[in-house]
Amino acid sequence: MDYSELEADVLRLIVGATEGGVRAFGEETVTRLVRPELLSGAAEDELTEEARSALTTACANVLTISAAELHDRLATIYDGILVDDDLDPGLLTAISALAHWKSYLEQNRRGELYELAIRSIEDIDHEVSADLDDFLATPQMAAEYERIRRLLDPSAGQERGARRR
After folding, report:
1. DSSP letter string over 108-162?
2. DSSP designation for 163
3. Which residues fall within 8 angstroms of residue 154, CB to CB, at 6 or more apart?
4. Is the Cβ–Cβ distance between 102 and 42 less than 8 Å?
5. Taking the C-alpha atoms of 59, 60, 66 and 69 in order, what is their torsion angle to the nearest 10 degrees?
6. 18-24 contacts at long range (C-beta below 8 A, 24 or more positions apart)
7. Per-residue model confidence as pLDDT tens for the chain (165 residues)
8. Can you spell out the DSSP letters for 19-64?
């Protein structure tokens, strides 16, 4: 599966998923994208102390924080970015994930969850450098794709299991 096919399939899965499925997918994915180890590579001089504290709080409470609180934390984070460009990739992933999650919480738009899925795929790609022509060739990328499919279309996993028997 090439990258454009992967994107199209993820979009199809998100559009066709139940409300409960997209919510579970969103919660699991945003939690994965704001994990503490993703932020460990960030340099001290990339964020003010206030922004770093807001980011830490938002990440730690991502599933319980309200959209309004998340909006305020993100404003503090954006105001406290000290570099013009070239933010640490993990820091950028976490901030982007928080922004997409906030928008999803505010507007319930599935497009924000599609963006979370793409950030999650990019996070894996950053770790393993997937081949654009065969994006699922690495075990890590194949596992991420299966995680996405399992959460958005639980029957897909059951169908594959039935075919293996």
Report:
1. --HHHHHHHHHHHHHHHHHHH--BTTBTT-SHHHHHHHHHHHHHH-HHHHHHHHH
2. H
3. 21
4. no
5. -70
6. 21/151, 21/152, 21/153, 21/154, 22/110, 22/113, 22/152, 24/151
7. 888 999 999 999 999 999 999 999 999 999 999 999 888 877 778 999 999 999 999 999 999 999 999 999 999 999 999 987 788 888 999 999 999 999 999 999 999 999 999 999 999 988 888 777 888 989 999 999 999 999 999 786 544 444 333
8. HHHHHHHHHHHHHHHT-HHHHTT--GGGB-HHHHHHHHHHHHTTTT
Per residue in 1-32, pLDDT (tens digit) is 888 999 999 999 999 999 999 999 999 999 99
Residue 32's contacts (CB-CB under 8 Å, 6 or more residues apart) are 120, 123
Please, are residues 55 and 92 in contact by the beta-carbon 8 Å criterion?
Answer: no
pTM above 0.70, yes or no: yes
User: CA 15, CA 79: separation in Å to the nearest integer?
Assistant: 34
Bridge partners for 47 per DSSP: 81
Distance (Å, rounded) from C-alpha 29 to C-alpha 39?
Answer: 16
